[in-house]
Amino acid sequence: MDPDHHPPSESAPVTSQRKLSRLADILQELYYKHRQKSFDAGLSKIRFVNGIMFTYDSSGKDDALSIAELLSLCDGTNNKRTLLARFGCMEAVTLMADILIDGLVGLDCDVEVIIAKMKEPHRKFIRVDLYSVQLDNPPWHEFYRITLRDGITTHVYALDLSSAQYGYYEPLVSFETYMVERVEEIRETSLDVAKRNLLRIVERAKEMVRYERKRVCAEIIFQAVKDWEWRGDLKLRNTLCLPEKELDEMKVKLIDYVEATLAKSNL
Question: What radius of gyration do the chain's Cα atoms show?
Fold first, then answer.
């Protein structure tokens, strides 16, 4: 949903802000598909206490539940989104960047990666280790800041595809609101998104044995989007200009195509 305005009428021109909001919604769905396919947290159990999700580490493959089994333990769409976004901010920034940058072509904007310390309470879940010890969640979080220029007007947004782990389910909000409500301090910013992605991929790949699978999954999604564009002779960024009903139809077709492509992959 557009963070600044009510949805326009079918005959109204689609503003730059509205295009960005629509792109954010599509990216959000693609991110969840990525997480669902590449989820490898190694959890043996989930339970809920007063709205907080407790996730229990597994001892190995024998007692680790599949993502389908874990999602079946979550009551409601938002709890499922929280699970999918669990510790997923780095993937949301690094691995979804290609689709984001491609979709932003034609919009006058700058994209920054922000690393920030989030305010308490932190995430909507608590990790429990094999010894039933509740572990502290790291406070650092990554998201995008997008500065959008529309003529003489400038709008600044936070795009956070993994915000569901904090109990927020709209990916695009005013940056000012985001800072006031969620951020304690900013640790780092970077304007050079492409260079930063490369550095982080190399850095994290050294730390995460399974990261290669996540990267391949993101590449499959990106290629599926490009194939879908070619089949329909319509760029993703051009669908953002469509009337609402047509956009919704195209979005469903795109997500279904990506999901089918992932299902056929060897991941």
Answer: 19
